[in-house]
Amino acid sequence: MSAEQVLGEVAKDAAFYAASGGGMTVSGGEPLLQADFTAALLAGAKRQGFHTALDTCGFASWETVDAVRRDVDVFLYDVKLLDDARHRAFTGVTNVPILSNLRALCAAGHRVVLRVPVIPGVNDDAGNLAALAAFGAGLPHLAGVDLLPYHHIGADKYARLDRAYPMPDTAPPSAERMTEIARFLGEHGLPVGTGPGR
Amino acid sequence: MMTERVRRLRRESLEARPAISTERAELVTAFYREHEGRLSPPLLRASCFAHLMAHQTVWIGPDDLIVGEKGPAPKATPTYPELCCHSLADLDLLDSREKIPFAVSPQARGVYEREIIPFWRGRSQREHLFAAMTDEWKAAYEAGVFTEFMEQRAPGHTVLDDKIYHRGMRAVVADIDRRLADLERTADPDALMTMPRQDELHAMRICAEALIRFAERHAERARELAATERDPARRAELERVAEVCTRVPAEAPRDFHEALQAYWFVHLGVTTELNTWDAFSPGRLDQHLAPFYARGLADGSLTRGRAEELLQCLWIKFNNQPAPPKVGVTAAESGTYTDFAQIGFGGLTREGRDGTNDVTYLLLEVTEEMRLLQPSASVQVSAASPDALLRRAARIIRTGFGQPSLFNADRIVEELVRQGKSLEDARCGGSSGCVEVGAFGKENYNLTGYFNLPKVLELALHDGVDPRTGRRLGPATGDPRGFAGFDDLFAAFERQLRHLVDVKVRGNDVIERLYASRMPAPFLSLLIDDCVARGRDYHSGGARYNTTYIQGVGVGTITDCLSALKHHVYDERTLTMDALLAALDTDFAGAERLRLMLVNRTPRYGNDDDRADALMRRVFEAYFAAVDGRPNTKGGRYAINLLPTTVHVYFGSVLGASADGRHAGKPLSEGISPVQGADRHGPTAVMRSAAKLDHGRTGGTLLNQKFTPALLADDAGLEGLVKLVRGYFALGGHHVQFNVVDAATLRDAQAHPEEHRDLIVRVAGYSDYFCDLGRSLQDEIIERTEHASI
């Protein structure tokens, strides 16, 4: 599919964007892995006057982020673990460019919503939450923090792909625990919501 | 807030078991026995109405503030033997059927057996009507090509404007007297009309006086009750009721209470005169009541709470009147207690400005609190309506009882103006019943029957012969195996369609005249402009505007069928016509792979796929061309609308397997919604497909969407719903309604109905108790696509 074809699909809902202020969200996978295509989509959407959002984990060079950022109205930016060693252990990559890109975007005045998956036993410990709070408090004009409770919806897909689901024993966090974490981050000045938000 | 009184009234209304009352039948029969043949039809009907108003039981319940029932007690349901007379078998069925029963006492059964049935045998309107129909009409009717609304209920589909709030019946009588005096002075150019104007006008006069008498009898009864009432508070209320009933409808109402009571008497009059289809309602109640409300608050005679309680009492009255029970096979078409009284709020003013006012929000509050089947609430949304109105409506929608439904007020004005209404009359009109539009207080608009579009295609595929019965219903349009291409097939469909619409319209012409000549409606004529001015009955072209509708059903199904034929047989040639017909005629026996290919590998309506949607438009144009603009018998014209009520279940039951992979006998798609489960690209794609239809050239379309409660639980979801509606209306949609329930809840309700008696779902143009629906309709509602996200 070409970027034009995708934009053609996107444009079909123009009447609804006009009513809602909504628009196009580019997500993935990781859209910045296909940076040129993503850039073409975002630029095309902005040409047509649509609101744009980029759902990214931020693992990319600054040059890549820099090339798309002027066409992004809001970044939905994943932050999982602040400790680089643990980040490497669970995701396989360093979080250094992720955090530096995030700082740079916020410093440049972009609208950024942090998206934090809450995964029991992985990133919901006091240490990571404290580090997250401290890091978040240092970001200027953060537009929001969405806490996304871990869920098992992917397990069925793994099964159908004949792949072993690596975390069958991890239970979703309780509603109480989610509220607790939200309260903790909120007390540190982070603009927290508990669901997908803007 | 519900007061204790309203709580009691509501509980009584919910718990009262609908029963057949023979009072009306006995009064009408006694009257006809004595007077039939001695009076001209208008005078006979008017005098019969006066007889009813003078002798019907007057019921005032211990908590009533708004008074008057159609029968001798709440939910004691009158019958209309002069229109259609229940047989003993009908009564036994009503009494014993599991769904929508009506209790029939041994006494009532006896009265029918001894007096009612013997007198009306061979005389009822229904018998006259069927006797007048051609074999061709009967064959198509029996095959389920179309239904006939007027075969057991009188046409009377209309809604009131604001006139009763400004002028009482005495003023109308004065108008009539002036008109009669004019007629004496000048020669009537239409003196040779079937019915002399003098008779029509005298009949109307009798009816106006009769309603005043009916109100007086309520005043008398209230005074009697007050005289023996020990509780001083209730005594004062009864004295007030007596005062109100003395004032209205004879004179114009002076305050909020009188305004509501004036409407209710008029409502009882209309629905007692004839068993009108349907949905007679006060129309723009918020605008009608706003002056009374403002004045009452200003002079201290009314509080918001009192206004709310009075409105709630009116809501109870609506809910106390089950739809007149059907006779014969029609019971299979539509099983519901609701009589489709839809009251619309918001919309536009006569000047074209936003009509939302304080009473609008009060009425929405009443709707939310009462959670009753009737009346059904709608919100008329224009570009000028505030988002706050839509948000308020959405908060009620998410509570999951299917109300209010939402209408595009701007598009409705366009629809009405296209039909020839003045701009002001169009702005004062709106939707009613299910989704159909009308110029309130000025139009006789009649739904005359549903039209089974997929059945017509089935005939085109079988050379005009119904494969179910082997009976010829349409012209011989050829063996489809010999068609050179899709256009030949479509041409055959169009020929069948035109022929069967001709049959339906010829039948309607005869039926409309039967009503005009045998069953005039002089009381209703008092209320609809310009019957008095013209001295013509509502059924004889007295109304300013006269529209006859035939409602197309199965748009989604026929589109997908045509798409499957075009795609597989003609374009891709994955299938021969012969193989397809063989599969259809055996209901896909041994051809499950073929069936799944048709289901899954066909461009289908509801996905914003032009390959399918272009065919939907082609069907629309063919149907529009066959119906719209034809003259009716009242000086008006035909128009189409696209709504099913519940008939898509019946229409499916008479249709064999279809090319969209649907098994024989299964329901059709409903309204303009896609085939159940065919839409795979979310609600905006459904709406984009639906908006490709030219709603402006219809008199109403119905789009159903279902959401799970979880989706609308938070403000973001609610806002999403509001914007979704705005988007659909910006695209030109006429109406959308939402079912907010999850399938698990519905399945549980199916298994344990006793635990879900209060579960109300949107069925089609109305809401109903889920547990009162038949199994197949329940299944279908469960099946309707649940959209996981907006």
CATH class descriptor name of the largest domain in chain A: Alpha Beta
Query: From the 3D coordinates, which CATH architecture of the largest domain in chain A would you assign?
Result: Alpha-Beta Barrel
- Low-pLDDT segments, ≥5 res of chain A: none
Strand segment tally of chain A: 6
Mean pLDDT of chain B: 92
Summed up, the helix count of chain A is: 9
> Strand sequence of the main sheet of chain A, in spatial order?
1-2-3-4-5-6
The CATH topology of the largest domain in chain A comes to TIM Barrel
- DSSP helix count of chain B? 30
The structure class of chain B reads: alpha/beta
| Largest sheet descriptor of chain B | 6 strands, mixed
The rounded Rg of chain A comes to 18 Å
Tell me, briefly, the overall form of chain A: globular
Q: Tally the structural domains of chain A.
A: 2
Total strand segments of chain B: 17
What integer value in Å does the Rg of chain B equal?
26 Å
The most extensive contact between chains is: A-B, 11 and 16 residues
Task: Please give a structural write-up.
The complex is a heterodimer of chains A (198) and B (790). By secondary structure, chain A is of the alpha/beta class. Helix content of chain A is 45%, strand content 15%. Chain A has 9 helices and 6 strands. Chain A has helices at 3-12, 14-20, 35-47, 62-68, 84-91, 96-107, 126-137, 153-160, 175-187, and strands at 23-26, 51-56, 74-78, 112-118, 144-149, 192-193. In chain A, strands 1-2-3-4-5-6 form a 6-stranded parallel sheet, with helices on one face. In chain A, helix 1 (3-12) crosses helix 3 (35-47) and helix 3 (35-47) packs parallel to helix 4 (62-68). The radius of gyration of chain A is 18 Å and the shape is globular. In chain A, 31% of the residues are buried. Chain B has 30 helices and 17 strands. Chain B has a domain at 440-674. In chain B, the strands form 6 sheets. In chain B, strands 3-4-5-14-13-17 form a 6-stranded mixed sheet. A 3-stranded parallel sheet of chain B has the order 8-11-12. The mean pLDDT of chain B is 92. With 790 residues, chain B is of the alpha/beta class. The radius of gyration of chain B is 26 Å and the shape is globular. At the A-B interface, helix 2 of A face helix 27 and helix 28 of B.
